[in-house]
Amino acid sequence: MYWVTLRSCLHVFIGLLFPTHFFFFKRCPSKTELKNLTLASEFHLIALSDDPDLQPVLFGLFLSMYLVAVLGNLLIILAVSSDSCLHTPMYLFLTNLSLADIGFVSTTVPKMIVGIQTQSRVISYVGCLTQMSFFLIFGCMDDMLLTVMAYDRFVAICHPLHYQVIMNPRLCGFLVLVSLLLSLLESQLHNLIALYFTYFKDVEIANFFCQPSQILSLICFDTFTKNIVMYTVGAIYGVLPVLGIFFSYYKIVSSILRIPSSGGKYKAFSTCGSHLAVVGLFYGTAIGVYLASAVSDSPRKIAVFSVMYTVVTPMLNPFIYSLRNKDIKTALMKLQSRPF
Predict the structure, then answer these.
(1) Which of 66, 185, 262, 295 could form a disulfide with 109 if both were Cys (CB 3.0 to 4.6 A apart)?
(2) DSSP conformational letter for 151
(3) 296 versus 132: which is more confidently predicted?
(4) Are 241 and 279 in contact (CB under 8 A)?
(5) E strand or H helix at 123, and its extent?
(6) Burial class (CB in 10 A: 0-12, 13-18, 19+), 226
(7) What is the rounded radius of gyration, in angstroms, for the C-alpha atoms of the chain?
């Protein structure tokens, strides 16, 4: 009853805000098309494999990957919080990135593990919107925080004498808060669209979770408006952060090349190595999934590729930072030797 009331309120709200678009959107569904559309109460997710013999293997594999991802990121958070030497802007952002990674992997993998165990691919309408909402919040937080961390490295290398003044606690807190608010905004935009358009072309989602682009493609409204929404959101939350990272590293590389000694160059660049590796992994897997969906017609193959950025990336991030970062390794050793 709550969701029906909320849908009705959204119809009125969006109709008042965009009166011309309201009637434009109402063209779909027509009376002749209504029989081909569905008022969704649940969705069906795709299974990575229908082979019964593979189900225990998949269950064990994804449970192990999930536990490694959560425990690895928790160790990073504990290491940073327990070592006062790491209470700096860079590690504050790293802690928030680890928290976002825990949320990101916890949004999709537990549902998939339960689905493998129970052989159920059904997810309720409310559950799907909830999963999509949290997926967007934590995914966008990753995106925003990687951009903020690039800016932090830019200030540290290009303006080292003013680093403490520029990256003060107030600015750091503000950057994290803005990242969270932008993530919430993107999530709610997608939810508003999904709640407003109650009819769907199909209830089969071609992925193992409620991927936002899949939900948007199933919603019944015209392709032109759908493309505007997708490209606008993509430009704000995809292109702008990437441009910010590229600009930061352009300035960083320019500054490093002006350092006369090779040892100084190596030391300056080594502070960016872990961040660059995580950025490459995050955007590389996302681009890989996009290219795979463009060239492949198999939903199952696309779902397998999606595992890379939804599961593998959050799992590998702690290893990248712990193996390539001397401060984190020292903090982890101190944490291990500390009596409890």
Answers:
(1) 66
(2) H
(3) 132
(4) no
(5) strand 122-124
(6) middle
(7) 22
CA distances from residue 68 to 97, 262, 294, 311, 329 in whole angstroms, order as listed? 16, 37, 31, 10, 17
Structure tokens at 36: 């081909």
How far is Cα 295 from Cα 291, in angstroms, rounded to an integer?
A: 6
**Long-range contacts made by residues 170-176, C-beta under 8 angstroms, separation at least 24?**
172/89, 172/92, 172/93, 175/93, 175/148, 175/151, 176/92, 176/93, 176/96, 176/145, 176/148
Sequence-distant (6+) residues with CB within 8 A of 81 are 95
Q: Which of 100-109, 129-138, 152-161, 229-238 has the lowest mean pLDDT?
A: 229-238
Query: By C-alpha distance, which of 98, 99, 128, 112 is closest to 63?
Result: 112
Higher pLDDT, 104 or 23: 104
Nearest-CA neighbor of 45 among 122, 100, 110, 106? 122
The residue type of 335 is L
What does the H/E/C string look like for 200-254?
A: ECCCEECCCCCCHHHHHHHECCCHHHHHHHHHHHHHHHHHHHHHHHHHHHHHHHH
Quote the CA–CA distance of 297 and 259 in Å, as a whole number. 50
| pTM for this model (two decimals) | 0.83
Q: Can you tell me the mean pLDDT for 255-281?
A: 84
Does 16 score more than 60 pLDDT? Answer: no
Residue 320: Cβ within 10 Å count: 19
> In DSSP terms, which residues pair with 72 in a beta bridge?
none
3-class SS at 258?
coil
Q: What gap in Å lies between CA 84 and CA 88, rounded to an integer?
A: 9
Task: Provide the β-strand partners of residue 219.
Answer: 200
User: From CA 116, how far away is CA 10, in angstroms rounded?
Assistant: 35
Count Cα atoms within 13 angstroms, Cβ side, for 141: 26
pLDDT in tens, 252-262: 999 888 888 88
- CA-wise closest residue to 311 among 2, 17, 66, 7: 66
Token pair listed for 119: 């052989």
Taking the C-alpha atoms of residue 152 and residue 158, their distance in angstroms, rounded to an integer, is: 10
- Read off the pLDDT band of 219 (50, 70, 90): confident
